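Record now logged for everyone:
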Amino acid sequence: MGMTPSTIGSSFGPAADNVSSVPEVLRYAAFSEDPAAGNPAGVVLDASGLRAAEMLATAAEVGYSETAFVTADDGDGSLVVRYFSPEDEVAFCGHATIAAAVAHAQRHGLEHLRLTTAAGLVEVEVRDGESGAVATLTSVAPYTSAVGEDDLAEALAALRWSSADLDPVFPSRVAYAGARHLVLAAATPQRLANLDYDFDRLLALMTRRDWTTLQLVYRAEPAVFRARNPFPPGGIVEDPATGAAAAALGGYLRELGLVEPPAQITIHQGAELGRPGVLVVDIPAGLNTGIRVSGTAVAIP
C-alpha cells in the first residue's frame, strides 16, 4: 500500500479468523511527559480478533510511526505483541513497547510484563515516577555487524553527507537489539541538525539491507547523545524518539568498547521535529545481556 512520506509524527504468529471491526485504539506519547512531545504510538490492547491486514490498515489510519497490537493476553503479564508501521509489520518497536506497557499497567495494575515479539522475549517493568508512569524495557541480546563500503557510500550519498562528516571515534556499524539500524556518528552538531536526505534512495538501500532506521547520533557529552532516526521503510521521514535504536546503540557502544559497563547514557531526540524526548539507556556488563531503555509515557487526549 502506498503512503506519502510524512514527518511524524513478515508476519508473526497466526492471524485469527474472528474479526473485530472497530478496535479501540489508544494513543500515547512515549519518552516524554508532554502529550505533544516524544514519540506518539498507537496501542490496541485487544487485537485478538484482528487479521494482519486489518492491523496494517489500522496502523495506517492512526498514522504514527508504529502501533502496537496485543494479540494475546493471559492475564498474568504475558502478552503477545505485534507492531505495524503505516507501511508494514516490524519485528520490534521500542517506543510502542513503552506506550503499550504503560497503557496496560494503567488498566490492569501489573508492573511486570513479558512481551513475546517477533524479535524474541522483551520484559518491561512499569513504575510510578515523579511525573507519571515510567517503563523500562530489556531488549533481546544485541549485536553489531560490519557495513560494506558500497552500502556505507550509498547511505552517505542518500543523506547528502560525506565521509568527512563522520566522527572517526565511532565506526559505522549495523547494530541490532530487536531490529537492525545503521549507526552513523556525526562529527559536529551542525551536521546532525541539517538533515535533508533523498527519501527514495535511502528507502531502496534500507529495504535491500533490512535496516529499520538509521541511528544518526552526535555525542554532546561523554554520556549524552543527540539522535535522529530516518525511517523510510515505515513511510516516515523521521521518527521522534526510537527505543529500539537506542537499545541497539547501547549494544554498539558496549561491543566496540566505547563505554565501560555498567554504564548509563542519555539520548535526546525529536527536538528538531518539535517533539523533544528523552531516552535513558542502561548498559550492563556481558555481551549477551539485553540493554535497558527507560522512558515516560503519557496518554494523548
